[in-house]
Specification:
Helix content: 40-55%
Number of domains: 1
CATH topology: Rossmann fold
CATH architecture: 3-Layer(aba) Sandwich
Radius of gyration: 17 Å
Number of helices: 8
Order of helices and strands: EHEHEHEHEHEHHHE
Shape: globular
Distance between the termini: 37 Å
CATH class: Alpha Beta
Strand content: 5-15%
Length: 267
């Protein structure tokens, strides 16, 4: 493929994934960015999961290293930024891909307080903290691209209270940082994936025992307006590649739906 990220340094948080039949958003973005010429810092709280992504990139001749970090912790994010600069000298791209849902997140009455905190810490606090420690590096460079991964649930109907509201907060954070740092040459955009055939969605939901795996796949495919059913991690990755490349140098503050038309139903 073309080397549109040649010479770029990218941090991808959530670069590992749980086991499954398909590829997750984080792994797909990391692999595609490496194919496009970027050097990648693969960040995950499970080092072995990031290591599996590293193996794929190594086998394809890319350049990367795995790094264990809990990005809901400020000190971990500080070490992450420092390690990237120590290893590669700069940070051109930051992808905030960490996210979660599930548990008792069905209504304000059912939702446990500790699960609210866990979902919010994972989905929005993590993005705040990585930006907090990477933005000073980009500010010195007077350049950089930040990509947050939200969800179409932020604008579509769903019964997941904490998940929906935390993903809406990711959209708002994107706008806030984009306008504040525009004059610094730092672009900040966001992707809202829709119904995706990824291990987190399929194995994650079916693994909780509420629906059989194939039934879940069929149900989710039926809900997607666009012919072909659910998207994949690669669909998220190709959108991310554009937004993080110099081809999108005049694009900032964008909340892009990658959802097969699901969000059209909201208007």
């Amino acid at each position: 493929m073309d080397k549109r990220l040649e010479g770029k340094i990218a941090i991808v948080s959530g670069a590992g994934q749980r086991p499954g039949d398909t590829i997750g958003n984080g792994r797909a973005m990391a692999v595609l960015f490496a194919r496009a010429g970027a050097k990648i810092m693969l960040v995950d709280y499970r080092l072995e999961a990031a290591g599996e992504t590293k193996t794929i990139i190594d086998q394809e001749g890319g350049t990367c290293f795995a790094f264990a970090a809990d990005v809901t912790k400020s000190e971990n994010c500080k070490r992450m930024a420092e390690a990237c600069v120590e290893t590669y000298g700069r940070v051109d791209i930051l992808v905030n891909n960490v996210g979660m849902g599930g548990g008792s997140d069905y209504s304000p009455v059912q939702l446990l307080e500790e699960e609210w905190d866990r979902i919010y810490n994972t989905n929005i606090k993590s993005a705040f903290l990585t930006c907090k420690h990477v933005l000073p590096v980009m500010e010195k460079q007077e350049s950089g691209a930040i990509l947050n991964i939200s969800s179409v649930a932020a604008i579509a109907g769903t019964n997941m209270v904490a998940y929906k509201s935390s993903k809406a907060a990711v959209n708002a954070l994107t706008h806030s940082i984009a306008i504040k740092y525009a004059k610094k040459g730092i672009r900040v955009n966001c992707i809202m994936p829709g119904l995706m055939n990824t291990p987190m969605a399929i194995e994650g939901i079916s693994g909780r025992g509420r629906v059989a795996k194939q039934d879940l796949i069929d149900q989710r495919n039926d809900r997607v307006p666009l012919k072909g059913g659910m998207g994949s991690g690669w669909d998220t990755a190709y959108a991310a590649l554009f937004l993080c490349s110099d081809e999108a140098k005049f694009v900032t503050g964008v909340i892009m739906a990658v959802d097969g038309g699901q969000s059209i139903k909201t208007g």
